[in-house]
Specification:
It contains 8 helices and 8 strands. The chain has about 280 residues and is an alpha+beta fold. Strand 2 and strand 3 form a beta hairpin. The protein is about 40% helix and about 10% strand. The protein has a 3-stranded antiparallel sheet with strand order 1-3-2, with helices on one face. Helix 3 runs antiparallel to helix 5, helix 3 packs antiparallel against helix 8 and helix 5 runs antiparallel to helix 7. It has 2 domains: about 60 residues, Phosphorylase Kinase, domain 1, CATH 3.30.200; about 190 residues, Transferase(Phosphotransferase), domain 1 (Orthogonal Bundle), CATH 1.10.510.10. GO terms for molecular function: ATP binding; protein serine/threonine kinase activity. This is Protein kinase domain-containing protein. It comes from Attheya septentrionalis.
Length: about 280
């Protein structure tokens, strides 16, 4: 017997107490079916696993593995308690997210998530980060086309604060939009603050897409981290690195960071700080 959480949606003709219109129900159902269709094919340690999917007359039900909290919960708890993720946790989460995204982008055909944000990144009870919410995910239209080619897909898809400029501008795009979103999450991980934290999401994406603005990088940050961020959120999608290269950079960065810390602080447990999440 396992404890779990059930995600479900009403079928189009059921008695839905949510007050959704018929068109809203259709859209929600389409997203739900899209998510299950993609999740059922995915198996990776950094992808939230679909355990079961069932349909009844009035409901379609999806059961996924139980997780502890979201990365957004972690950020909120740290803000509430005025604490920060340890350097080890920052780098570990960055690597785990990149590993999951590298898997998605190297699927055949590649899968574009299109809504990467802290709320869609879950942490399990062992501290493993996993990607979830594939309702907006898109299988790349033609897997035979070259990696850097772009496609006409739905504009303004995803969450404004983490949305790539070309998506907001309704331009053609490809999987590099996920790399841009990754950069914003990476910034959040290391700064402890959301990109453009003083602005709402719509103002933030306007600054990024129409003014070419990017979050301020503190001068004291490691130059390799600075360079990686600037590559990943580059205005030109073709200049953004694939996740396999991001993983290489993070591996080299982490080895140097932890070697330096081990030399200067021998015997310190850098993982002692938890996420302080409260799960009810």
């Amino acid at each position: 017997m396992h404890k779990g959480r059930i995600n479900s949606t009403h079928s189009r003709d059921s008695d839905d107490p949510s007050g959704m219109t018929s068109s809203e129900k259709d859209l929600a159902l389409a997203d739900f079916r899209q998510e299950t269709a993609i999740l059922r094919k995915l198996r990776h340690p950094n992808i939230c696993m679909l355990l079961a999917y069932s349909t009844t007359e009035n409901f379609e039900v999806m059961i996924s593995e139980l997780m502890k909290c979201s990365l957004l919960d972690v950020f909120k708890a740290n803000s509430l308690h005025n604490t920060h993720l340890t350097k080890r946790k920052q780098i570990t989460y960055a690597q785990q997210l990149a590993q999951g995204m590298n898997y998605l982008h190297t699927c055949k055909p590649p899968i574009i998530h299109r809504d990467l944000k802290p709320a869609n990144l879950l942490v399990d009870f062992s501290g493993m980060l996993k990607i979830t919410d594939f309702g907006l995910a898109k299988i790349r239209p033609d897997p035979e086309i070259q990696e850097n080619d772009q496609f006409l897909m739905t504009g303004e898809t995803g969450s404004y604060r983490f949305m790539a400029p070309e998506v907001f501008r309704h331009e053609e795009y490809n999987e590099t939009v996920d790399v841009y979103s990754y950069a914003m999450i990476l910034y959040y991980l290391f700064s402890g603050k959301a990109p453009w934290c003083m602005d709402n999401g719509l103002v933030a994406v306007n600054k990024a897409a129409l003014e070419g603005d990017r979050p301020f990088i503190p001068r004291e940050w490691d130059s390799r981290l600075n360079h990686l961020l600037k590559q990943c959120w580059d205005e030109n999608p073709r200049s953004r690195p694939p996740f396999r290269d991001i993983l290489t950079t993070l591996s080299e960065f982490s080895q140097d960071v932890f070697k330096t810390r081990a030399d200067s602080v021998a015997g310190t447990d850098d993982d002692a700080t938890g996420c302080n999440c409260v799960i009810s």
